[in-house]
Amino acid sequence: MTRLIVAAGGGGDAVAAAMLHAALYGDEGPAVILTYAWDRLLVDPVPGPRGADDFTGLQPLTPAVWKVPAEARPIAPAGSTLPRLAAELSHTLALIDPRHGAEGVVRQLEELITHLRPTSIDLLDVGGDVLARGDEPTLKSPLADSLTLAACGQVNAPIRLLIAGPGLDGELSHEDLRNQLGALVHTFTAEDTEPISAILEWHPSEATGMLAATARGVRGTCEVRDAGLPIPLTDESPTVHEVDLDEALSRNELARAIMSTTTLADVEALSREICGFSEIDYERDKALRLKMQQPTTLDFESVLRRLAEFEAAARSHGVTHTTFRHLTEVLNLNGSQRDDLRRLLIHSRPEQYAAPLWRIA
Question: Where are the beta strands (DSSP E) in the chain?
């Protein structure tokens, strides 16, 4: 018996998939989690998603699908969290390679389904931006979710679309999503987070981090991303809802437009046309800025002084929590200093650690 879970946006969605499997299918064997290798720039300084040619040590599952084992390594200068995830999860991680557009992802899905004959297939999105039309002013990263939705909509197999943590990615609010959410499938609890607790100590996903924090009872407002988006942490945050996949596809204009694409460049072009941007362009621009940026030294007294300034400003806006990824950016540190910053703050002020978030003093 094998469950297939497709992590719609990659990154933290793959971690959330492990938590979902534990909550819904925990008494069964490991799942196969199909996910992008697409990490933010603090992990992978190369813009965009990684393909199979960007790794060494991948293992073939089918002609078009590769397994990412713990021994795999991204080829420098690229980075990836997937090998470490593979080492810490009991599940099989399989790579979504988007270089051949939606048609390529369809082929990967069809081969994997034929090979595995899975008991069920879940398409999981944390936050719910897979339900975007494409013209929302708050939309930041529709490409990956739309691509997996477009592919899943063409596969001749029953696929259940699940939205975990509606509104937690800061792109569509829970109010925007409320009327689209279907039946409540599950509400995550603190117990459900146990299989990924160690992973959340190092993985930089903000949305999945907030999902786990709210499952543990954290409530308030969390400031995230480089733009400082405020995300409400409510009783709805740790929920999982089912959504009709065909209805999501009929709503998502970008997903419909890219269904016959054969290259990632075609997907990007249609994203620019429909949404007005491609998030890979944003990553390209940010990567150039980061190359020119002079990182601040991780000096204890200086960090605490600048942290106090940030916390004072955050409190004035009603913010109660933030992520270590956001703190790394607002303190003008580089991605390699995130873990050191985290250890420093938790050691000096353990009472402010609301795992895996930081509570504003």
Answer: 3-7, 32-36, 55-56, 59-60, 66-67, 73-74, 92-96, 120-126, 160-164, 184-187, 220-224, 229-233, 239-243, 321-322, 353-354, 357-359
